[in-house]
Amino acid sequence: MTAFYVMIIASLLIAFGFLGAFMWSVKRGHYDDDYTPAIRILLDENETLTPKTSDQKRDPKTL
Amino acid sequence: MNAEKLTIENEVHTTHTCFHCGDECLDEIIMQDDHEFCCDGCSVVYDLLKENDLCRYYSIDGAQGISPDKTYFKGKYDYLDLPEISEKMLEFTDGRLARVNWLIPKIHCSSCIWLLEQLYRINPAVRSSVVNFPEKKVRITFEAGQIKLSELAELLTRFGYEPYVSLNDVEGKQIRKWNRTRLYKIGIAGFAFGNIMMLSFPEYFNLGRSSSDENLRTMFAILNFALSLPVFFYCASDFFKSAWSALRGKYLNIDAPIALALLCVFLTSIYQIVSETGPGYFDSLAGAVFFMLIGRYFQDKTYAGISFDRDYKSYFPVAVSVIKNSVESRIPITDLGPPDRIIVRNEELIPADSVLLSSRAMIDYSFVSGESEPVERKIGDTIYAGGKQTGPSIELEVLRKVSQSYLTQLWNHDTFSKEKEDQSQTLAARINKYFSVIVLIIAAITFLVWFIILKNPETAFRAFTTCLLVACPCALVLSSTFTNGNLLGLFGKHRFYPKNADTIERLAHIDTVVFDKTGTITQANEADVEFIGKELSIQEQVMIKTIAMQSSHPLSRMIVKKLTGISASRRSLGHYVEAGGAGIKALWGQKKVRLGSASWVGASAQENAQIDASHVYISIESVICGYFTIKSKYRPELAETISSLQNSGYQTYLLSGDKPTDKALLAPIFGQDYNLFFEQKPEEKLLFIENLQNKLGRNVLMVGDGLNDAGALRQSDVGIAVSDDINNFSPSCDAIVEGSQLALLPAYMKLAKSGQRIIKVSFGISLFYNIAGLTFAVSGNLSPVIAAILMPVSSITIVAFTTLASNLAAQKWIKH
């Protein structure tokens, strides 16, 4: 019978984890714009670049 | 002569499209790198892209380029560097890095997204830029020490993406920031709903009655209670706050019975758990809150890129050029005051009431007063704020501060301080009043019957509280929120954008429609141009076009447009003179050419009988060749639209700020001419509508487009702004419609009325569930399982029905 208690508490904790992930992603602004990311993935990344000042050029996505 | 004619004929047969912007190359063709461009602007941007290795731009979406803003001049954005302004513009700064979020109205396609996110390659001081396409904004993070805000703005302008900086931004007022709290609440309510239902499953199947499962039952009950706490206190808080504020205002809105029902259910459930008489109704509670929150979210998701609240502050520029001791500098418009001297360039706005110091000015007041032709002003005249200068730059001396100008006084009228929306008048609120009262009566009677006649107090309480659970008008809320939300989306597809659901409801009650003229029922940049006279040779047409191109008078522009097939000559003209109100004259080689009014050209004015058009006469070497008639072009479906409205029973009026030139043309369309009013000032328009509302008790819809309609749009029950370019400014209104879609106005109104009917029918359907639930509740038999089934089933039925019905209604009314 104790198995029940453990299982239920465990499953609730996992569910809380997912809820927390959702709240965190809303807070970080992932749901502010649900349209542009869909277009952005269709635009190719440039591999062949002629860097102007290579030490200053950064990938915008990682910022 | 023959060779010239031959080459011109050849040119006319092949169309050349600009490699950059995709438009046809009309006036000149610029060749570069084997590509053709329609103008200097386009070829310059192409150069820039090539230089920065960004020609990938053209392979994404084709020729979607934009020609840079022609009104740009060096120093235009200098005011952005002023500390008090840059402080308000920057979203974030820590001394090294800074971030700004600018509205770029010209964003329109995926190439724009790509290019704007490559800014870091053009200027290394830009760290990153992220585009938000629906809002048409770009968020740029840059190194504050290496690039100034004005330089950043200049960079964007060079590519054709100039930022739109308005006074509202500078004053710190943000256009409503998107509400994340709603999503948190929906997430928590959904989480709780799902888990509570899962934990309640044994109850549904009557399991766990044996005493060995006693402890499990208790644990499940406690967990259910714990999960419902955030739902009740956090997720449902909006309902309680709204109900409380309504109660304090001594009226009942739709949230009051919802709040009451939620409270009763919560308390009953707690009682059941504590007294161990049952498992409680926490699943229904969480489910009801979850569905209603989704409905509200769906209904309130409006169009992020459109603003309905622009007032004169968004219309005016942020900074103006001021001259002090012969030095020109840019200062914020709010710092402007008498006796500053300002410079206003071509197509720029006059920001404040001032006195003209230059010898002559041609002011276009069409947006402000509705007059379609520019007015000439001489030195010493007072010029009112809001007009646009057309022609060379002028110098003015300011008379009053911007906020005290004649134009801004309109916003002091108390119609701007009243709230238009009245939550207690929505259909849902009105139905709810009857519904709640009836259910309360039934609940009370049930209680009394059980308590007094059947002498069973426990069942009496249970029956009473479960009646209230059923009485929760969440079905009613769902009917209206999902119908209105769906209608908003359907309207949006047809490029009609109501501000919110309440606007749709008010639209359904309209019985009178008032139209503005200039820009609303006329097409602002188009005209019907005809030439009456002798056949003009190609050379004569070139002559006329070249001379007309020197003038920025709208009539000249229309003539230039009419002669699209002709390439203007680059020859310089001698003795070019433009006399306002009369015409222009110039020397073409040795020939004297005059364009203008009959008297300017020396013709007799017999044709004046036709006052519904402007006439521009042409004379070459004092020989009159003929004249152009230029008529304002009305939207093609105007007659159809008006007659359709009249057939549906609406009264129609026309209120125009312009002269009564087209009265004869418009009278048959509107039916008679006592519905047409001309030369109306903005306040007169407002008073006219107020009169219709108060004295005749009518519900008025106003359709307008300019600042001269701002008061009328606000005063009317529903105000629609017509816009040919959603990116441009439109005054504060309840809905925006694209000019080409104005013909669908009767269809939109029919759809709004259908929406009301759908809500009523859908509510009728929910009554069926309510009656079923009530029969159980009255007999004291509403167990949690029945409540838990009824609630999602009824919700889903209602959502499905309203969505299907509103889609069908849209298909029926809006036929192409």
From TrEMBL, chain A:
Keyword field: Membrane, Transmembrane, Transmembrane helix
Transmembrane annotation, as ranges: 6-26
Annotated source species: Dyadobacter psychrotolerans
A Pfam family that the UniProt record links to this protein: FixS
Encoding gene per record: ccoS
InterPro entries linked to this entry: Cyt_oxidase_maturation_cbb3
Keyword Transmembrane helix: yes
Protein name (Swiss-Prot/TrEMBL): Cbb3-type cytochrome oxidase assembly protein CcoS
TrEMBL record, chain B:
Segments traversing the membrane: 183-201, 221-240, 252-274, 280-298, 434-453, 758-779, 785-810
Superkingdom in the source lineage: Bacteria
Domain (Putative metal-binding) ranges: 17-91
Record's keyword annotation contains Zinc: no
Membrane topology: Multi-pass membrane protein
UniProt keyword Transmembrane present: yes
Any one GO BP annotation for this protein: copper ion homeostasis
Record domain P-type ATPase A: where: 317-411
Cellular component terms (Gene Ontology): plasma membrane
UniProt entry keywords in alphabetical sequence: Cell membrane, Hydrolase, Ion transport, Magnesium, Membrane, Metal-binding, Phosphoprotein, Translocase, Transmembrane, Transmembrane helix, Transport
Pfam family, one: E1-E2_ATPase
Location(s), subcellular: Cell membrane
Gene Ontology molecular-function annotations: ATP binding; ATP hydrolysis activity; copper ion binding; P-type divalent copper transporter activity
Main location group: membrane
Family, per entry: Belongs to the cation transport ATPase (P-type) (TC 3.A.3) family. Type IB subfamily.
PANTHER family hit by this protein: ATP7, ISOFORM B, CATION-TRANSPORTING P-TYPE ATPASE-RELATED
Protein's name according to its UniProt entry: HAD family hydrolase
Species of the source: Dyadobacter psychrotolerans
